[in-house]
Amino acid sequence: MRVLGIETSCDDTGIAIYDSKKGLLINEVYNQRNLHNMYGGVVPELASREHMTAMIFLLKKIFKNKSIAECIDIIAYTAGPGLVGSLLVGATFACSLGLSLNKPVLPVHHMEAHLLSPMLNFKSIKFPFIALLVSGKHTQIIGAYKFGKYEILGNCLDDAAGEAFDKTAKLLGLKYPGGAELSKLACNGIEDYCYFPRPMIHHPSLNFSFSGLKTFAAQKINKCNQSIQEKANIARAFENAVIDVLLIKTKKALKKQKWKRLVIAGGVSANHNLREKSKKMVKKYFNGTVFYSSPEFCTDNGAMIAYLGFLRHKEAKKPQLEILVKPKWSINDLFF
Ligand code: KG4
Ligand code: ZN
What we know:
Elements: E1 2-7, E2 12-19, E3 23-31, H1 33-37, H2 44-63, H3 68-71, E4 74-80, H4 84-101, E5 105-109, H5 110-116, E6 129-134, E7 139-146, E8 149-154, H6 161-171, H7 179-187, H8 211-223, H9 228-257, E9 261-265, H10 272-286, E10 289-291, H11 302-311
Parallel strand pairs: 1-4, 4-5, 6-9, 9-10
Antiparallel strand pairs: 1-2, 2-3, 6-7, 7-8
Helix pairs in contact: 2-4, 5-11, 6-8, 6-9, 7-9, 8-9, 9-10
């Protein structure tokens, strides 16, 4: 069975085909970074318009002269959470393709797709596990009991980890989205040159609050001599603070659930230091294992949607006229 996955939740247009026997066949992502960079962040109206153009471009590139109907069996698309205009473009494409090709269509949850995306690399990940989902819009600690049964144990109260990275990167003069660039800059920073606060680490909940860090970073940047070295020192201190907070809360969650497996997923899970430090923490305190995917599956992509579509294919409905999107869909509440 072959599943076409369509991802348009934010500013990446992703299309992929997952084959139940051969695995991932195609994974194409059109990145809108250049368009949004000039505004310093995603402009929702522009993102949805760009998805329309990118979707046609990618479909033509993937299928060329081939018959789409012969290449795929079902279509899965991101129904939420995400930007409503962007989601509507993907959903409308998916449902229209389903109708015209007479193929079943399946709406799937973007964060569940992130959560399971390391399985594209490691099929053998066993439930239950703790998932740390760290993306541009979400920072969540999830108890993953079994496929389809998840519980949010901790959530972000304001800026998500990726958002904090992006906003601080902007203050440092880096391009949007600045997470990866900030991390590169931090590599040259002097350890312990300055110290950032660790918000909410003593709070009994597993929730996060990162919005104060960008204000703290703004003050540090204003006061520094604006040299690359000082900026790198600030970037390093910022990155250390975010990672410390993420791992302190994740450690509490593993302890609470008495589990040994940790999955980290979402754009920020591409961060090298987060990966290394989480491996050490899980080994040292739990003698456990950390799973994360290769970088192309960390940020938004169609492969994770196609893979989740394959896992859920039995729920796929016949070609449907009803176009469903849920911009604020919670992973606690998976079914429509
Ligand atoms: O999962 P994703 O592609 O989009 C959402 O679903 O939100 O995550 C994008 C986020 C951006 O904030 C980006 O700056 C961040 O992931 N990111 C990183 C790194 N690579 C991407 N943050 C820190 N370090 C990285 N290496
Ligand atoms: Zn995402």
